[in-house]
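Task: encode each sequence below as structure tokens.

Item 1
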Amino acid sequence: MEYTDILVIGGGAAGMAAALAASEAGRRVLLCEKEDRPGGILNRCTHRGFGRAFLGRDLTGQEYAGFFAERLYKSAAEVRTGVTVLSLSQDRTALLSGRKGLFRIKFRFCILAAGCLEKTPGSLGIPGTRPAGVLTAGTAQLLENTDGLIAGYRPVILGSGDVGLIMARQFAESGREVVALIEQKDQVGGLLRNRRECLEPYRIPVLLHTAAVEILGRDRITGVRIRDLETGFTRILHCDTLITAAGLIPDRTLCRDLMPAGRLPDWLRLCGNCESIHDIVDSVTREAMALGASLGQEAPRK
């Protein structure tokens, strides 16, 4: 069985920063990433706004990921891509699946930096059919920015968090019509800078106190029935795409069997959006580097 001082699960911003800091502290570090390259969600982000606080530079998400990936590969940390961690055990071992099959790793500490999950359209409980064209914002980013596909031409965007705002801008910048951005609350969410940079220049219609109450269409979505939560009035917005940006949930799937008493074992640490949802990647990086450095001081060499 292989051994490492610190196993890092997830190669996004948090995982890369934690692995880099722990490695620089002189510990044996193994970072495992299920995708073919590190970067996580950053690899889908072609917009700027990353690194302003931590690096003093205005980078795209892809550039930010590349900056840390380059440093990580030059460090002593071992990076394995295309590797999925299937389970963690109380005896401080992990079962992993890679290109050559299943294998186990024993470790002193484990940093779980698995990121977060989007709330799915199905979890929102909107009545209607489930035609093509109903996507989460993250899926739309993946299709457009990674796969080079078109997610839709006349979208309605449900939710005004940062990802929803950024996708609204991306559609508008490419000449497509954003039918409306819908928000149940009395104000737009997201960071102030995103509200200013994503909505105002493109005159995107924003409907506050509004909920989607029905999805219309059979093979492809044709519209969304919405309700004004103050008046109760309903009407139909005709569209070919519904982008849901309903929020994020920390991905702690690997913790489920490790918390019989509701507490994490002392060898496991949560990091980044897996620990709590952050507004900006700079704070994720800063906290992850502090965690990696701290465990680097604790973890003894075998």
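Item 2
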Amino acid sequence: MVQIEGDLQAANLKIAFVVARFNEFICEHLLEGALDSFVRHGGNKDDVTVIRVPGAFELPLAAKRIAMNGKNDAVVCLGAVIRGETSHYDYVCANASSGIASASLETGVPVSFGLLTTDTIEQAIQRSGAKAGNQGRDATDCAIEMARLLKQISEA
């Protein structure tokens, strides 16, 4: 029996972070956690590209484009959508989520989901580095593991 499983070895991986500027305070904390994770797992900051987009809705297009260039082993999307008083939240969350998944499937490059979708600013703060951890770190761990897994599958 052959069992293939990814690991968290970021050495020699190239990774791109697509970061929304809307809710910038939250997104910067997500990026800090993401970069910390990449370096802690042996990644080199010289192998990182950070791309800034206006908001969460724009994450999928930038993620797909950077994934298509063939220079990155993984892409991590970071953003925060906080519920407001209109249905705008639902549309942005749904389209950003499906777009991020499509970018990964269409390019064959792991595109990790680090998009917070919260009801309150307090929840977003908690998920970007306070008690509830840092979703940027978690998304980066996922991206590293998937990049390593796909490399192992290619070699199997």
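Check on item 2: The longest strand covers residues 74-82. Residues 82 and 118 are 5 Å apart (CA to CA).
End of task.
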